[in-house]
């Protein structure tokens, strides 16, 4: 394995687990304190990274240095960049240096150098199908099984794999001795994220099912969500739909780059925005803004205002 590595992408859980595999392979558990050096890539300077790389490992042939959330793959060129790149090319064989990042500009010299001399792996958001298959396999780690339909249900209403994995752990703990996860018993233990509920509510609105949309509002309020937070999420969601609708005609990659939205959000928003015209979405956003002002001025109660909002948007 080459000793200069970059892992980047939206799926931080996958990156974390890849780093853990390397750590397990290179650094014995009893030597982690001296041969594993984690660094904060948002603040660490190049000189300190190089110093860490040049420290000789103790009681072992190898050492691991991990620079988490490295800024060097997005930020502007620094005065030390050329020197830093030259030094990275000659880090000692006993040191394995891993950078992690959410985004990486493939035009940057450091990216090209690591790709040429080391290992670069990208961890993007999986498609819904791939995510469902991942869910079906992941639940086995917790001693359970589920059919693909149930896996799709969970994949649909969770965001990144970190949240998905967290929900799977909850499900496995709740089921105790029960081995099979079934969709019809998930309602007792699996709560969609607030964002997932908003997506479902907008689906109801787009299908002119205002009664169902109101039920979702009331369910969220009964779960303890604050009305003003729900309104904020609705407004944010409508703005995302406007953004995606405005970029209609572009490729998925172009929409991702121009909008800055998470691919999971974009994928669902593209489908959902088909239920609305751009004018309808802009009108909905204006209704959200008006309700926000009315709530803050005490002109209307949150629950009544939200119920009227989803009815008027439908």
Automatic annotation (TrEMBL):
Residue ranges occupied by any DNA polymerase III delta N-terminal domain in the UniProt entry: 6-122
Name of this protein: DNA polymerase III subunit delta
Matching NCBIfam families: holA (TIGR01128)
Similarity comment: Belongs to the DNA polymerase HolA subunit family.
Upper lineage: Bacteria, Bacillati, Bacillota, Clostridia, Thermosediminibacterales
Entry-linked Pfam families: DNA_pol3_delta (PF06144), DNA_pol3_delta_C (PF21694)
Sorted UniProt keywords: DNA replication, DNA-directed DNA polymerase, Nucleotidyltransferase, Transferase
Domain of life of the organism encoding this protein: Bacteria
Residue ranges occupied by any DNA polymerase III delta subunit-like C-terminal domain in the UniProt entry: 195-312
Reaction catalysed by this enzyme: DNA(n) + a 2'-deoxyribonucleoside 5'-triphosphate = DNA(n+1) + diphosphate
GO BP, sorted A to Z: DNA-templated DNA replication
Organism, as annotated: Tepidanaerobacter acetatoxydans (strain DSM 21804 / JCM 16047 / Re1)
Enzyme class: transferase
GO function terms (MF aspect): DNA binding; DNA-directed DNA polymerase activity
EC annotation from Swiss-Prot or TrEMBL: 2.7.7.7
